[in-house]
Design a protein that fits this description.
By secondary structure, the protein is mainly α. It has helices at 3-14, 32-42, 46-62, 70-79, 81-95, 103-120, 125-148, 154-173, 180-186, 207-225, 227-237, 239-244, 249-275, 286-296, 308-327, 332-354; strands at 196-198, 204-206. The protein has a single domain, classed as ABC transporter involved in vitamin B12 uptake, BtuC (Orthogonal Bundle), CATH 1.10.3470. It is built from 16 helices and 2 strands. It is globular, with a radius of gyration of 27 Å. The relative contact order is 0.18.
């Protein structure tokens, strides 16, 4: 027998007493809390939906039957239309891990341009309407260029443009409010979003609310069915990885802010229909309510995760809580307190959910 054969035989005899157990790498069964965390990570709209249902159940008891009256339900929808529309614009920006503090100012500036051109300066309403939309687009484009090409932080950029656009509102409007009667006479198209459709039992739905839903459907399609939408999520999740895969992240950011400006112009049209006038005091701070709706709706402030459906739920939650607390006789001070608690809870839950991917 050769030396190699003897060596093999000795090796085999030496292994006779070795442990034959196969190594196992099975993971322990995840706990219930871990499964909930994974579920919420996969379906971020579940939380705002649950909160909305719980809120409706609570106020159905504390506020009584008047909360469920069809007129009151339609009133809540009308009240959140502006917040919901701006929330759609804000969702696009936050998905890229940015933020836009100027959406309220862009909305008011666009409404002032529409109203002043058509009523005060006597321009054809159609031209004034288009130029108002171009104002929103231009403001969003400027924000996008400063963020994407000049490489400035979104928070600082939009904080600055919030002041700039707010100053332009005062300059263009001369601090004057254009009355509803004058708009009806000179440019009735600007009031179209405030027209109402009467349903049974006093329920009223405005065209502005319907327009908000249509905008949400279109933007949802863009985000979920187009390459641009996938680029938005990828840019927000990891901009450097997105750039290395060939995505034009700068162009995506400019496109997002420009589209957000266009949606703000739509909100301006809705605003004129809602309040009936074009006023320089027309809810410039609506950007804070829009951010609230987005955060409560489950969109992550760190980008890359969220949905428009969640934002609409978030807007409804804000509207339902304020309406329900008011009907329950709660002071306005505590209404704002409750909304603040909701924001903190939403961010806390978002941080907890994000740990699943850490």
């Amino acid at each position: 027998m050769s030396d190699s054969s003897q060596g093999s035989a000795l090796a085999e005899r030496g292994l006779d007493g070795a442990d034959q157990t196969v190594a196992s790498f099975d993971e322990d069964k995840p706990s219930l809390l871990k499964r909930i965390q994974r579920f919420l990570h996969e379906f971020p709209t579940a939380i705002p939906f649950i909160v909305l249902i719980v809120g409706v159940m609570i106020f159905s008891v504390t506020a009584g039957g008047k909360f469920f009256a069809l007129f009151n339900m339609s009133l809540v929808l009308q009240q959140v239309t502006i917040i919901g529309t701006l929330g759609i614009a804000q969702t696009l920006v936050i998905l890229t891990a940015g933020i836009d503090l100027s959406v309220g100012a862009i909305m008011v500036l666009s409404s002032i341009v529409m109203g002043r051109l058509a009523v005060v300066w006597g321009w054809p309403p159609e031209i004034a309407f288009v130029l108002g939309f171009l104002t929103g687009i231009a403001c969003g484009f400027i924000n996008g260029v400063l963020v994407a090409l000049v490489k400035l932080p979104p928070f600082i950029v939009t904080l600055g443009t919030w002041s700039i656009y707010g100053a332009m509102v005062i300059y263009v409007s001369h601090s004057e409010t254009i009355r509803a009667q004058d708009i009806d006479q000179m440019a009735p198209i600007l009031h179209w979003t405030g027209n109402r459709i009467l349903f049974g039992h006093g329920a009223l739905i405005t065209y502005g609310s319907i327009l908000m839903i249509l905008v949400a459907v279109v933007v949802w399609y863009i985000l979920n069915r187009t390459a641009f939408g996938r680029h938005v999520y990828a840019t927000g999740d990891d901009p450097e990885a997105a750039r290395l895969t060939g995505i034009n992240t700068a162009g995506t950011l400019v496109g997002v802010y420009t589209l957000a400006g266009f949606i703000c112009a739509i909100a301006a049209w809705v605003l004129i229909g809602r309040i009936g006038a074009a006023s320089p005091l027309g809810n410039q701070t609506a950007n804070l309510d829009a951010i609230t709706a987005v955060v409560i709706g489950g969109t992550s402030l760190f980008g890359g995760r969220g949905s428009l459906v969640g934002t609409l739920f978030g807007a409804l939650i804000v509207g339902v809580f304020r309406n329900g607390l008011a009907l329950s006789g709660v002071d306005v001070l505590w209404q704002e307190f409750a909304v603040g608690i909701l924001i903190i809870l939403a961010v806390t839950i978002d941080q907890w959910i994000r740990k699943i991917s850490a």
